[in-house]
Amino acid sequence: ASSGDTIPEWPKSPRPTPYQVLGVSKSAIYDKRHFYDLVKLYHPDTHDPQGNPSSASASTSPSASSSSSHIGQLPHATRLERYHMIVAANELLSNSSKRRMYDAYGLGWSHGDGVTTLRDIDRNWRHQQGTAANNATWEDWEHWRDAQAGKAGEPVFMSHGAFATIVVMFCVVGAIAQTNRAENSSTVYAGWVADQNNNVGRRLQRNEVMVAGLNKDERVNHFLRERE
């Protein structure tokens, strides 16, 4: 491998995290070396239709050659699925804002067990201590305000404008929560995932046009240069 490090084994979990896919620590600064090594093993151009490694993967280190031979025995669909996961994991972890969203809420990764939807966020908010999610009547709001002020036995005064602002804010949050619980929430999320997959597909198709006429080694190297 180009990095000289041992190429990480594929995670045993059927729904791995992006960190597991690329074999990197969640607390570490992201390094693309494992991504480059894995692409050279799983890129569609590194194996012929029968699963035999091309010279692009066979000319690497002995450990890489051994891994390539093992990967060549996998079904084409499995190799291609892993390749897409490798590319998606790199795009997520190499983008600091996307990585923060994933670390905080599990958003942006459609391949793992812990796929977090807006419905999950709403559910967590409703179970937080001191939340106003379940306030329905004027008395509920009074009790909630008393509890927030820590003065259950004393009257709490607030300007009409401030209270109206709070009510409007929670009405908006409640409306969003209701929308998330509706049946079309899964459709919206599925559409988002489909858009992500279509974007990857379009990029792959564009690359196929650009690398037409290149040999297999040149196509793999072109792919890696595009992601430096």
UniProtKB/TrEMBL annotation:
<dbReference type="InterPro" id="IPR001623">
    <property type="entry name" value="DnaJ_domain"/>
</dbReference>
<keyword id="KW-1133">Transmembrane helix</keyword>
<feature type="compositionally biased region" description="Low complexity">
    <location>
        <begin position="53"/>
        <end position="69"/>
    </location>
</feature>
<dbReference type="InterPro" id="IPR036869">
    <property type="entry name" value="J_dom_sf"/>
</dbReference>
<protein>
    <recommendedName>
        <fullName>J domain-containing protein</fullName>
    </recommendedName>
</protein>
<dbReference type="InterPro" id="IPR018253">
    <property type="entry name" value="DnaJ_domain_CS"/>
</dbReference>
<feature type="transmembrane region" description="Helical">
    <location>
        <begin position="157"/>
        <end position="177"/>
    </location>
</feature>
<feature type="region of interest" description="Disordered">
    <location>
        <begin position="42"/>
        <end position="73"/>
    </location>
</feature>
<feature type="domain" description="J">
    <location>
        <begin position="17"/>
        <end position="106"/>
    </location>
</feature>
<keyword id="KW-0812">Transmembrane</keyword>
<keyword id="KW-0472">Membrane</keyword>
